[in-house]
Amino acid sequence: MKTLCLSLGMLLLIACCCNAMPDALRYNTGPVECCYNFRSVVIPKKYVFEIKKTHHSCMLKGFIVKTVKRRSFCFRESVPWVLEAYNQMQNPEGSGQQQ
């Protein structure tokens, strides 16, 4: 009985400590929004409903801008107006200026 418990304990320890998890399970398999085509136009702030960053598993990083008409557009992380609008939406009470 001791040998059986010791063997099962060692087997469990080995299974947990080694990388026995398949590579496919390491990535999010749920619905993830990624960007493949990026826009260069400016969307007026009054038409912006939501801005989200692309998921960390996406190959191309950027922002997904959803308009009040629920249309989504992708923009690169380096686009200044999107970055500024995203920061304002994340921190609405601070305008970024100190008094």
Automatic annotation (TrEMBL):
Annotated Chemokine interleukin-8-like domain residues: 33-86
Leader sequence segment: 1-20
Species annotation: Ilyodon furcidens (goldbreast splitfin)
Name of the molecule in the record: Chemokine interleukin-8-like domain-containing protein
Subcellular location as annotated: Secreted
InterPro entries: Chemokine_b/g/d, Chemokine_IL8-like_dom, Interleukin_8-like_sf
Entry keyword set: Cytokine, Secreted, Signal
SUPFAM superfamilies in the cross-refs: Interleukin 8-like chemokines (SSF54117)
Protein origin, superkingdom: Eukaryota
